[in-house]
């Protein structure tokens, strides 16, 4: 049976560290503050805002909600991000997406200071990932993969890591983060020949394609560490990952469940 890599254990460890850092900042006269930028009243955005606000309060982080009407123009949103970028009392910013039709996300995000771009959405943040420059932040899910490996003390340096998926949200940035940690990285995608064979030869496999249970036992071998980043729903409406967990879990050395793994 594989070791189960549980997100809640990583979250608990991170919480302890973040609370301590927030307390030190407050003692120095700095109130760590996160801006949440929302356009409109989408129910999923409202739910996420409530969750983020509650989590921030638990960590000792203040929240400023910046709410624009659904009819907000690109200029209005850009101006809001300009103000947040220039405000020394705000230290991080999350912009809820997707944005309304008619707003050019790529252009709008150029108005956000990468030093405050905690979700890794700006071009400068991504450029930092690809050039090994610590400007901005890597996308959160990619960072979560590295946090998981580090928490469970899974070696990265010198290991062969396979990443299935080439999106700018997960696949490409997590490949660069693994490479920065001296793994040898192979990036696979839907047109890769002999994908199962390449996967079986890896030490670490990251599955990030958004295809429900697409990768079965033929893609894995004994002793591997498998990070399943997929968030999917099967035909019965059950939440599942990219990996066929029931078939793969008895075979590999360690695996993240879905739910309960990277998503947490």
Describe this structure in words.
The chain is α/β, with parallel strands linked by helices. Helices cover 36% and strands 17% of the residues. The protein is built from nine helices and eleven strands. The protein has helices at 7-27, 43-59, 74-86, 105-108, 123-131, 140-151, 171-180, 195-200, 245-248; strands at residues 3-4, 33-39, 62-68, 92-95, 160-164, 184-188, 204-207, 225-228, 232-233, 239-240, 254-255. It has a six-stranded parallel sheet. The chain has a three-stranded parallel sheet with strand order 3-2-4, sandwiched between helices.
Question: What's the topology here?
Answer:
Layout: E1 3-4, H1 7-27, E2 33-39, H2 43-59, E3 62-68, H3 74-86, E4 92-95, H4 105-108, H5 123-131, H6 140-151, E5 160-164, H7 171-180, E6 184-188, H8 195-200, E7 204-207, E8 225-228, E9 232-233, E10 239-240, H9 245-248, E11 254-255
Parallel strand pairs: 1-11, 2-3, 2-4, 5-6, 5-7, 7-8, 8-11
Antiparallel strand pairs: 9-10
Helix pairs in contact: 6-7
Structure in a nutshell:
It is built from nine helices and eleven strands. The chain has 264 residues and is α/β, with parallel strands linked by helices.
Features:
globular, 3-stranded parallel sheet, alpha/beta, about 260 residues, about 15% strand
Shape label:
globular
* Overall SS class: alpha/beta
Helix content: 25-40%
Average the pLDDT over all residues and give the rounded result: 96
Number of H- or I-type helical stretches: 9
Q: In percent, how much strand structure appears in the residues? A: 15-25%
Largest sheet: 6 strands, parallel
